[in-house]
Write a structure and sequence with these properties.
- It is a single chain.
- Helix content is 41%, strand content 19%.
- It has eleven helices and ten strands.
- It is elongated and about 60 Å long.
Length: 258
């Protein structure tokens, strides 16, 4: 099974290039949107290792380090940064969980560091996954961490799965890595499923992506409201693996499941 990495940092070309390289050989979840998002994603993914680019970090990111040390102390953390950048977080490098590599993050250095920390043979790691991942991309959007974790476990062997815990984060994710199908929670705070679907359909480049609603409410009036939005399909929570995959496959074929 592929090792799991959460990659944290400020979005720039160095981070983007490293993400694109690492995801050829590992399951990588990129988080470039703040401390609380990063900590929440770590809890959802339960990675084997965390990689952090310190480029652009300030003392405000202390909360990430403190949270990882407090709640994820068993997960090794590799950071990439200059001696000045590391100095901001120096107190966290004393217990062995955190290890810094001097300089700006880059694909080759990150790959080598991850393999070393996890005790992997680099040649063996390269052979785990073919260079081109031709699996269909599924974006799962839900504000509930346990739901994200559950659906990810159902789908990750068959699909390339990306997670988002809000409608706005989903839109950011879609812009960076266009999915083939979207599983969208209907009941979310701030920006709910209906509003997120409207944003997707308002963008001409995204409007053709099939969207499957997930809902935990099964009364007639609620289901009618969901169907009225003409999604590619809808499923009641908790999702059943066989039914979930069947609905995704039909949506990918352009068939409606409503």
């Amino acid at each position: 099974m592929m090792k799991k990495i959460v990659l944290i940092g400020k979005m720039n070309e160095h981070l983007k290039n490293t993400y694109e390289y690492l995801r050829k050989y590992f399951y990588v979840q990129l988080c470039a949107e703040g401390a609380q998002k990063a900590l929440g994603m770590v809890k959802v993914i339960e990675p084997d290792i965390i990689v952090i680019s310190l480029e652009g970090f300030s003392s405000l990111e202390q909360v990430i380090f403190a949270g990882l040390q407090k709640d994820c102390f068993r997960i090794p953390v590799i950071t990439f940064g200059t001696s000045i950048e590391k100095q901001l977080f120096r107190i966290y490098y004393n217990d062995g969980q955190f290890e810094n590599y001097e300089g700006v993050i880059d694909p080759a250095a990150a790959f080598s560091a991850v393999c070393k920390k996890l005790g992997l043979n680099p040649d063996a790691a390269v052979s785990v996954v073919p260079p081109d991942d031709n699996r269909k991309k599924v974006l799962v959007v839900d504000d509930n961490a346990s739901t994200l974790r559950s659906i990810k476990s159902m789908l990750e062997e068959k699909y390339n799965v990306t997670l988002a815990n809000s409608g706005m984060k989903a839109m950011t994710s879609i812009g960076k890595n266009r999915p083939d199908v979207i599983l969208l929670d209907y009941e979310m705070p701030v920006c709910d499923g209906r509003q997120t679907l409207e944003m997707i359909r308002a963008d001409e480049d995204l409007s053709s992506i099939p969207v499957i609603f997930l809902t935990s409410v099964n009364d007639k009036e609620h289901i009618h409201a969901v169907i009225k939005l003409l999604p590619a399909g809808y499923l009641l929570k908790p999702a059943v693996p066989e039914r979930l995959i069947e609905t995704i496959e039909k949506a990918l074929e352009g068939k409606s499941c409503v």
